[in-house]
């Protein structure tokens, strides 16, 4: 007796739900991702054999020309830092006294700052295009000499704004004169600050290929 052949039917899988979930996940990751902002001050940091990541820090960047810049990640800390700087140094630097709330908000949106304190009121009155051009072409750096220790004032303001709960990191270009970095360290010492970290990139192991540079501080 011949066998009864059951007709084969292809299996149909409805992928509609899977596509919906995939697009929802993609949308979620795009909206919640935080991209690293482009650095205004380009420096090629030196390498080290071991590194240790550091968070919650005020970073002092020293470029090849010896100009010093500061950056703080958190907007709220930048706002509070400017408030404390105005409170403690307003009489010494007239250009920072009497800032409006809009000007302080403008400053809090700038993750990198490199101007003399007395220029703060003028710079925070700029519009977005003027400030971008100023950053790219004219930013002179923060004074850090023995007679005008403004870099120390900024760091102290950041410490007051966070009740001392902030680290100090120094990032210098590997091709710059080491005296520039020494000068910054000396200015911090004048403010009785002796603990800080140096930002380096991880060196490649012997015999291995090149290791991509990552800005991770090495504690010093």
Shape: elongated
Number of extended strands: 9
Q: State mean pLDDT (0 to 100 scale).
A: 77
Question: Which bin fits the share of residues in helices?
Answer: 25-40%
| Number of H/I helices | 7
SSE series:
HEEEHHEHHEEHEHEE
Considering the chains and any ligands shown, give keywords for the structure:
7 helices; single chain; seven-stranded mixed beta sheet; 220 residues; alpha/beta; elongated; two-stranded antiparallel sheet; disordered C terminus; 9 strands
Characterization of this structure:
With 220 residues, the protein is an alpha/beta fold. It has one domain (47-219). It contains 7 helices and 9 strands. Strands 1, 2, 3, 4, 7, 8 and 9 form a 7-stranded mixed sheet that branches.
Secondary-structure map with pairings?
Elements: H1 16-32, E1 47-48, E2 57-62, E3 68-72, H2 75-89, H3 101-108, E4 112-113, H4 120-123, H5 128-137, E5 144-145, E6 148-149, H6 150-161, E7 167-172, H7 178-190, E8 197-202, E9 216-219
Parallel strand pairs: 1-8, 2-7, 7-8
Antiparallel strand pairs: 2-3, 3-4, 5-6, 8-9
Helix pairs in contact: 2-3, 2-6
